[in-house]
Specification:
Length: 132
């Protein structure tokens, strides 16, 4: 009987140890995914961030810094909305500037209203880039 209890206790310790190891590995993976590579170049103010139309630049002429608001884990919970295109683009310029970008490309603002009679509700998206 005591041999069986010892085996159960040993198995319980192994299971607890494996659970701790799995938690450490998971935490390390999440932390690694949340890190961003450093962007080379001087930070520009939000007012200096240019908005480019997609055909204005070739892909070889810029480096993608981040997908604005999409690269963050926060978009799983909430996504910012705006009352006008200009308000959304200004907010994206601030985010791009903070990320070290000097431009935005593929910018689009979509109407998120359920009914046309509701007040404006725009969701804006774009890619923060660093022009070479």
């Amino acid at each position: 009987m005591t041999l069986e209890l010892e085996q159960v206790a040993t198995g319980s310790r192994r299971l607890r140890w494996l659970g701790c190891c799995a938690a450490v590995v998971l935490l390390a993976a999440i932390t690694g995914c949340a890190s961003k590579p450093a962007v080379k170049g001087a930070k520009v103010s939000a007012s200096e961030v240019r908005v480019y139309a997609t055909p204005d630049l070739l892909q070889s002429q810029y480096t993608l810094v981040e997908h604005v608001w999409i690269d963050s884990w926060r978009t799983n919970i909430t996504y910012p909305s705006f009352g006008s295109d200009s308000a959304g683009i200004d907010a994206m310029k601030r985010v791009a500037s903070d990320a070290g970008a000097n431009g935005l490309i593929n910018v689009i603002c979509l109407d998120g209203r359920a009914r046309p009679s509701q007040s404006p509700l725009l969701y804006c998206y774009g890619d923060a880039i660093r022009v070479n």
